[in-house]
Design a protein that fits this description.
Strand content: 25-35%
Distance between the termini: 17 Å
CATH topology of the largest domain: Hypothetical Protein Tm841, Chain: A,domain 3
Shape: globular
Strand order of the largest sheet: 10-9-8-13-11-12
Structural class: alpha/beta
CATH class of the largest domain: Alpha Beta
CATH architecture of the largest domain: 2-Layer Sandwich
Radius of gyration: 19 Å
């Protein structure tokens, strides 16, 4: 069985060197043409994004035909497919995957809605890859992915809501009011529908980092060792501060500081910082 995911999983080059995972690209549409998200370095992307102000590029997902081609290639080698994708509450990618599967041998293609993105999606993809290597059967893998999904928190804050407003994710009036009041929202991904959910508001980024840590403590304060991925756009100093804050407040066994995919950065701008957290026991159970 081979895993397929998409660019929103924020897999590292080390992840892709360790596991045979196929990544269906998400796209960024600039005025001069469409570019695969992976074709740009993070800094190249943010330089172009900021140079376009006040315009904003758009994003696109793989077509059902793209998925059908990918699935056909994998199945021609005699393998089944486990296709795990960005939340249906945030993107149409998983529906495109299902439509692509319907064009092929559907009984050998298993499409999973992660109901999350970025580091949370990455946890599920890497767990599935480890389970396949360990010889797990598909029903057991799917059950473990469900446990990981319900135990994972993805939460972040933004320096500005301007990019969300320009991309149509929120209204300009809301963004302007937040700017005037200097409000930094704390946003999580809902476990019920995979959509964004505001869990707090702070007046400064420093306060938001503290509040974000407190939010995680409220969820994991009684939990055992944790795997924490701190994610940011081009906000390295704040990411380091958040990592130190979380590490000082929770029992962290594995800590990474990573950067989110440019295709996600289109909607947030460079000033995004947050974390994905999962209990290590759910990963270590995969033997």
């Amino acid at each position: 069985m081979k895993i397929v995911t998409d660019s929103a999983a924020d897999l590292t080059s080390e992840d892709l060197a360790t596991f045979p995972i196929a990544v269906a690209p998400l796209y960024i549409q600039f005025p001069e043409g469409e570019i695969r998200s992976e074709a740009l370095t993070h800094d190249e992307f943010y330089n172009r994004l900021e140079a376009m102000r006040p315009q904003l590029p758009t994003t696109g997902q793989p077509s059902p035909g793209n998925f059908a081609d990918l699935y056909r290639t994998i199945q021609s080698g005699g393998e089944e497919v486990l296709s795990i994708h960005i939340s249906s509450g945030l993107s149409g990618t998983v529906n495109a995957a299902r439509n692509g599967a319907s064009q092929e041998k559907e009984e050998g293609i298993h499409v999973v809605d992660s109901l999350t993105l970025s580091g949370g999606l990455r946890f599920q993809v890497l767990a599935a890859a480890q389970a396949i290597q360990a010889g797990w059967e598909l029903p057991n893998i799917l059950a473990q992915l469900e446990r990981i999904r319900t135990a994972t928190e993805v939460v972040y804050t933004l320096d500005t809501l301007d990019y969300l407003a320009r991309g149509g994710r929120i209204g300009r009036v809301q963004a302007l009011a937040s700017s005037v009041l200097n409000i930094k929202p704390i946003i999580s991904v809902s476990k019920s529908d995979g959509k964004y959910n505001t869990v707090g508001k702070s007046r400064t980024i420093s306060r938001a980092l503290n509040d974000l840590t407190e939010h995680l403590v409220s969820l994991y304060g009684m939990e055992g060792p944790l795997w924490v991925s701190v994610m940011h756009g081009r906000f390295e100093e704040k990411a380091r501060l958040l990592a130190e804050s979380i590490q000082g407040a929770l029992p962290v066994e594995k800590l990474e500081v990573l950067r989110i995919s440019p295709v996600l950065g289109v909607h947030t701008g460079p000033g995004i910082v947050g974390a994905a957290v999962v209990p290590m026991r759910l990963i270590e159970e995969i033997q």
